[in-house]
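name: query_chain
kind: protein
chains: 1
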Amino acid sequence: MRKTKGTIHFVITGGTIDSFYNGIKDTATPRKVSVLPSYVQMLRLSEKAVFTQVCMKDSRELTKHDVVNMLKTIEASPHRKIIVTHGTYTMPDTARFLKRHLKRHDQTIVLTGSMIPLEGFSPSDGGFNLGYAVAQMQILPAGIYVCMNGSVFEPDEVQKLLNEGRFVSLFNPGSSKK
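structure:
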């Protein structure tokens, strides 16, 4: 891939945002192939978008190998704007892993996802969270962030409140950093 200033590289890992309701399991199950490329293309973003599907898993099923592949994909990307779609259960863990192990410091990396699948459910927070991540990508400095529920978090502060289905700051549970 050639380096393009205005390109957003979407690194896809599955999670609820890319899931469907599985009636047999009575839960959301990640699809085999992501719906994100067609969804993002429909948005007609002003920036070019490229996509790399690393895996399609519930984040509770991600292995160390999967997370290392995610890291390698980000390290190898010629792009400076990276959005990682990820399951919400372990999103903070992955953000902290990337912060500890990423050797590059010239990229803005945003992890986002949803509590409700992007396709097949209305309303879904997936479209909002993706749009928010793209918007924040325009103004955030290089670094690693989690963008969920209309808030931006740094890896060391973010926590998912399972009982409320939202993300908060460990340091200030009532508000976000930005």
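note: The chain has a mean pLDDT of 91.
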